[in-house]
Structure formats: C-alpha cells, structure tokens
Inverse folding.
C-alpha cells in the first residue's frame, strides 16, 4: 500500500518507519525541518515529499497537533475518496485537556472537514514510545490490543491490516462516533504513561474470559 504521512514528528515518524519496514511504500511530509524530513525518510528507506504528494497515496496518516490540522489539510489538497487514518488528538495548545469531547470528537470534526474521505481513528491510544517494541514482538501469539473506529467498512479493513502490520491486535469498537470515548481513553493512557512510575512504554490488551 502507498501511505502518505501528514506530520512526521514522533507519531508519524515512528508509524511511517514501521509501515515501511512492513513493506509499504511510504512518503513522509509536513515537517518544520526539511533536513529532518529527508533524514527520516532516508533512515526509514522511504520518500520525503510535500503534503500534496503524500495526499496522492492510497492512504494518508494524519499525525499533527490539533492546532495544525487545518493547515495540514490545506497543504494536502483534496483527500476525496482517500482512507485517512487520524491519530491527532483534539488537544488545547499546551496539551492539558481536550477541546472537543462528550457530544462529538476530534475524529468526527475531522470527517466534517474532509467529507468525501473515509476517516478511521486509530493508533492514538498508545504512546509512541511503545511502537518499536511492539513491532519487534509482532510474531508472538499474544499481541497488545489497539482500538479503532470508523464508518466505512472497506476503510476499516485497510486500517486493521496496518494495525496488524505494526504488531497490534486490532479491536473494532464501531462507528466513528465511538471516538468520543476512545479519545478520553487516550487521556487515561497518557496519565499512566507519563505521570505514573514505570515509564511510557505502555500498551494494553483486552481479553474475553469464558467459564
């Protein structure tokens, strides 16, 4: 799959690198430093390009701060018909609280901004610090879970494939409106990862227990 990365910081940089390692054709874009972008692409054995070039791929990962979403979308141009996976949390400027919650979600707001695209919310519910360790252990029988949601069935199948490719067990929690619950859940994960002893290398797993 050809995957364009809009936002090549911690989340986008690590996920794009793992997508490339899994055999996908990755184009990194939207970085404040052109040199860092090219260096990231070189290390990941991927491409560096413009947001508009990234938007020409089969799927686009949106991994920018909420305050920069509109600018990233403007630079990308049309995303009509594209699978857009968002891990961008609707946070305020100092990342202390959600600016969209309860009656809507960042993912739903995004879908309204790009109504002809197919939005799936995924990857945002785990710290970026755990990605490489999860990928390294991807062949183990027991994988950590990763929740995702969206309204388009085909887009969700493609997103689930990418979730598996980087080492997680995809857990479909339903339509895009379920991001109203997964986004606050991310705040809980962030609390455990960054404010509780133990460090940010944190993942979670859901298991069904019978009998």
């Amino acid at each position: 799959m050809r995957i364009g990365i809009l936002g090549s910081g911690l989340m986008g940089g690590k996920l794009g690198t793992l997508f490339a390692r899994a055999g996908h054709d990755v184009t990194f874009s939207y970085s404040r430093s052109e040199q860092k972008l090219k260096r990231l692409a070189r290390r990941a054995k991927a491409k560096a390009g413009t947001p508009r070039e990234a938007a020409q791929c089969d799927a686009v990962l949106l991994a920018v701060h909420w305050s920069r979403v509109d600018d990233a979308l403007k630079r990308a141009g049309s995303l009509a018909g594209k699978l857009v996976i968002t891990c961008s949390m609707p946070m305020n400027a100092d990342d202390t609280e959600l600016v969209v919650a309860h009656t809507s979600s960042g993912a739903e707001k995004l879908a309204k901004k790009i109504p002809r695209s197919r939005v799936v919310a995924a990857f945002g519910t785990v710290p970026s610090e755990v990605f490489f360790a999860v990928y390294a252990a991807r062949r183990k029988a027991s994988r950590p879970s990763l929740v995702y949601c969206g309204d388009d069935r085909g887009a969700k199948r493609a997103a689930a494939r990418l979730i598996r490719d980087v080492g997680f067990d995809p857990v479909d929690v339903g339509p895009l409106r379920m991001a109203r619950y997964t986004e606050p859940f991310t705040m809980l994960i962030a609390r455990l990862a960054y404010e509780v002893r133990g460090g940010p290398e944190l993942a979670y797993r859901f298991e069904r227990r019978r009998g």
Q: What stands out?
A: The first helix runs from residue 10 to 21.
